């Protein structure tokens, strides 16, 4: 039996994979440091699905070719990246084994936001003004040039090669640059990345202002098999972290069609061949501006929302594409709506968490997760990793799904007290 090779460990994928794969057919490849820090071997112990866990430093250049030469007899059915940082390794490994994949060139373009800007601009795709920067002086110089051409405008300072909005911040004034740079270059993702340092590369861009969307597109031989447009909302404040996703986006069909068309242009510009893309856009004055595009499954539960709203077996179709098979015809329109709403927490020490059971029982809710408990310390919202939980719902329409998600999230009350007040009370 040919194994399914998954690069990057995502424990939440195991239940759905069990419906698609026979016992003993899955091989995980994960970084040694991550295996240790996340206790991956304990998490897969006793799993009938997992054949093997191979520890390999897949973040590093050349490691896919090294892996292939050390495992020439593996003969995988498919090679699939489950995390952002795995996409170049998985793409190159697929090339070496002769399996479907995005192509290494496309994976490298999509992994590097600066390179993606260069390639997309060359294809005539709208991008915000953007520059690579090496320190606060570069950021201030960019802001000054932008002010001369457009008037004072906010900018986004962000890494070129990170995920989950890590190290990303919106700046409105040059006086904010020093503090923001010091905060943004601290990009510790804890247990999810290896202990060795990762290269630091920063971008500054004009902050495009308008409604935000993402397009999820299943691609085979460079053509779209399935598309969905997701609407999104952000938490208020300087950190552009998603507060909610709505499937499908509740927008005019003409705008949805344009977002899909522009995503197709990104796919062609990058030379993406087989797989799935999650392409993010901001629409300003009617023009979709490219934010970024990932060559892997969307996070934040978006895939589950899609599968319930249409409905469609997107997981099954994706793995079919990666095995070189032709999936069944897929729907072009959703039959209902689905939404995820993330929780809001004030910084401090968590005193109590109430209402989770009521939220789980609210109309339309099919998943409810609260990841903090009394005694935990919440340092504030810096990236997607810092969100304290979510509720996921279905409904007859996207608007009703969002309303239900907001109502269910409002039932969950997380009370915190400032850390300094807690220390005084303890004395």
Annotation keywords:
427 residues; alpha+beta; Rossmann fold; Dna Ligase, domain 1; D-amino Acid Aminotransferase, Chain A, domain 1; 4 domains
- How much helical structure, as a percent, in the residues? 25-40%
Shape: globular
The CATH architecture of the largest domain comes to 2-Layer Sandwich
Structural class computed from helices and strand pairing: alpha+beta
- N-to-C terminal Cα separation, in Å? 63 Å
Strand order of the largest sheet: 13-12-9-10-11-14-18-16
CATH class of the largest domain: Alpha Beta
Give structural notes:
- With 427 residues, the chain is an alpha+beta fold.
- It folds into 4 domains: 4-99, Rossmann fold, CATH 3.40.50; 129-206, ATP-grasp fold, A domain (Dna Ligase, domain 1, 2-Layer Sandwich); 209-335, 2-Layer Sandwich (D-amino Acid Aminotransferase, Chain A, domain 1), CATH 3.30.470.20; 337-427, ATP-grasp fold, B domain (D-amino Acid Aminotransferase, Chain A, domain 1, 2-Layer Sandwich), CATH 3.30.470.20.
- Helix content is 32%, strand content 27%.
- The chain has helices at 14-18, 32-37, 40-44, 63-70, 87-97, 104-111, 113-122, 136-150, 177-184, 253-270, 302-309, 314-322, 356-360, 398-410, 419-426; strands at residues 4-7, 26-30, 50-55, 78-81, 130-133, 155-159, 169-171, 202-206, 212-220, 223-234, 242-247, 275-284, 287-294, 337-342, 348-354, 365-370, 377-378, 389-395, 413-417.
- The strands form 4 sheets. An 8-stranded antiparallel sheet has the order 13-12-9-10-11-14-18-16, with helices on both faces. It has a 4-stranded parallel sheet with strand order 3-2-1-4. Strands 5-8-6-7 form a 4-stranded antiparallel sheet, sandwiched between helices.
- Strand 10 and strand 11 form a beta hairpin.
- The chain is globular, with a radius of gyration of 22 Å.
């Amino acid at each position: 039996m040919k194994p399914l090779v998954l690069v990057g460990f995502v424990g939440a994928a195991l239940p759905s994979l069990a419906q698609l794969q026979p016992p003993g057919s899955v091989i995980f490849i994960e970084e040694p440091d991550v295996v240790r820090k996340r206790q991956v071997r304990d998490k897969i112990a006793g799993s009938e699905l997992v054949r093997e866990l191979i520890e390999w430093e897949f973040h590093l250049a050349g490691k896919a070719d090294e892996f292939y030469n050390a495992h020439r007899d593996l003969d995988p059915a498919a090679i699939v990246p489950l995390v952002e940082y795995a996409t170049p390794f998985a793409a190159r490994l697929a090339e070496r084994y002769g399996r479907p994949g995005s192509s290494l060139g496309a994976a490298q373009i999509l992994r590097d936001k600066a390179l993606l800007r260069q390639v997309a601009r060359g294809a005539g795709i709208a991008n915000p003004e953007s520059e690579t920067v090496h320190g606060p002086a570069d950021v201030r110089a960019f802001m000054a040039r932008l002010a001369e051409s457009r008037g004072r405008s906010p900018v986004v300072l962000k890494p070129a090669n990170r995920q989950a909005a890590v190290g990303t911040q919106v700046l409105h004034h040059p006086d904010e640059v020093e503090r923001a740079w010091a905060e943004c270059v601290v990009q510790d993702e804890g247990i999810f990345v290896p202990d060795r340092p990762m290269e630091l590369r920063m971008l500054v861009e004009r902050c495009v202002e308008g409604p935000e969307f993402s397009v999820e597109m299943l691609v085979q031989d460079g053509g779209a098999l399935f598309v969905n447009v997701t609407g999104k909302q952000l938490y208020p404040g300087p950190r552009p972290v998603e507060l909610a996703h709505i499937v499908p986006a509740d927008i005019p069909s003409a705008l949805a069609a344009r977002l899909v068309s522009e995503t197709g242009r990104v796919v062609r510009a990058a030379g993406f061949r087989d797989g799935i893309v999650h392409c993010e856009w901001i629409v300003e004055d009617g023009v979709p501006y490219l934010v970024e595009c990932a060559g892997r499954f969307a996070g934040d539960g978006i895939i589950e929302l899609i599968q319930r709203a249409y409905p469609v077996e997107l997981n099954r179709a994706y793995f079919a594409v990666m095995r070189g098979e032709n999936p069944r015809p897929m729907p072009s329109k959703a039959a209902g709506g689905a939404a995820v709403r993330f929780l809001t927490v004030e910084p401090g020490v968590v005193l109590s968490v109430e209402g989770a059971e009521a939220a789980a029982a609210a109309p339309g809710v099919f998943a409810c997760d609260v990841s903090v408990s009394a005694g935990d310390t919440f340092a504030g919202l810096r990236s997607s990793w810092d969100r304290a939980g979510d509720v996921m719902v279905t409904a007859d329409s996207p608007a009703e799904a969002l309303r239900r998600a907001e109502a269910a999230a409002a039932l969950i009350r997380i009370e915190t007290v400032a850390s300094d007040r807690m220390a005084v009370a303890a004395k």
